[in-house]
Amino acid sequence: MQCSTRVQQIQADMTYRALELLNLPPDEPAFLLDIGCGSGLSGEILDEEGHVWVGCDIAPSMLEVALEREVEGDLFLQDIGQGFGFRAGSFDGAISISVLQWLLNAETSHPTSSPPHRLTRFFTTLHAALKNPSRAVFQFYPTSDDQVQLITSIAQKAGFGGGVVVDFPNSKKARKVFLCLYVGGGGGQQQVPKGLEGEEVDEEDDGRAVFEKRRERLRSREKGGKRKGIKDKDWILKKKELYRKRGKEGVPRDSQYTGRKRKAVF
User: For 150-181, how does the pLDDT look when each residue is reduced to its tens digit (9 = 90+)?
Assistant: First the structure.
């Protein structure tokens, strides 16, 4: 089932914020894991921002929608509470939007299906799958401080650094909770970012105007005299090389025409 336009907008806002918190090197394609990718809404933004991504989800129906939409990322079915089986150091980072809280639900009465066991498998295998240094950012909806404490303590036991970032803490509608985790690194890499603050946001727009302004600033920021959205030859070659390293099939070969501007056809 397709999401409403409003839900899509909220998802997009949170994805852009997660990317901001990932603090990836500018103008460098990264290989990212989208945890709980659903129909690929966040993945489309990752692709738009120049990254290569892999998405996992527990719902076959959502992955089918993503396939129908022909998203760029590779997709696989996965219960994240069972952990991952990726090669060590596979990913440059990970994001997850509105998923982490579901690991707090026990699947059965068996001890290995308890939230602590599922969280431990998840964070331990994710930590191994991430490069050193790197980050993972999760937007989630905790229902209590105890849940936040349980999640952060298990993540720390798995080897992560970092902590919780709360945007707009005084707004009932715009308030968003992010868990920003680090693998390795030092100095500024280990410093937990500050949450966004501001005046009380109108509940009708759900903080949308604030996120829109921040998103436009990010996308229009010039790096090295170029807008990030402009895909020149060097950018295209870097992304194609990253695709090849990850074993993606059907990557076009390089030629003298790579990155060349096409004349408009009328």
Answer: 999 999 999 999 999 999 999 988 999 999 99
Phi, psi of 57 (to 5 degrees): -155, 155
- Strands 130-140 and 91-97 turn out to be parallel
Specify whether the CB–CB gap between 56 and 80 falls below 8 A. Answer: yes
Find the helix or strand (DSSP H, E) in which 116 lies: helix 115-129
Against a cut of 0.85, is the pTM above it? no
The answer to whether 42 and 69 are in contact (CB under 8 A) is: no
Given a cut of 50, the residues of the chain with pLDDT beneath it are: 1-2, 187-188, 200-204, 206-209, 213, 217, 221-230, 262-266
What is the set of domains in the chain, with CATH numbers? 5-230 (3.40.50.150)
Q: Which residues of 81-105 are buried (b: 16+ CB within 10 A; e: fewer)?
A: bebbeeeeeebbbbbbbbbbbebbe
Amino acid (one-letter) located at 219: R
**What letter does residue 112 receive in the DSSP assignment?**
G
